[in-house]
Amino acid sequence: QSATIIYISRSDDDIRAYATHKLVKAMRDDDGTQIGLLIVATWCVGEYGDLVLKPYSAETPEVIAFMGLEPSAVVATVEEVTKRHSCPEEVKERALTCFTKLSERFAGV
To answer: pTM higher than 0.70 for the full model?
Structure first.
């Protein structure tokens, strides 16, 4: 978990945007059993949540594209994870920090 967070935090904005978009999707799709994924995703959303407000696209051998999200959708995704019965305390703790960061990042939106 720590290595993934360090890698993303040291990457450029393009990789951060891709990773955060991908992690938001993974949070939605996860059934709550991948605790490491939820921890990393929650941290990234708190740290780089502003990057998922804009659409993302990249051309590799195939086109990768994500639509921009509304701030309320980003917050709702994290909130839904924390309301799951199976959500561990460690994820809930990170979510509180995430909400604090997002309130600052989304203040002008």
So the answer is: yes
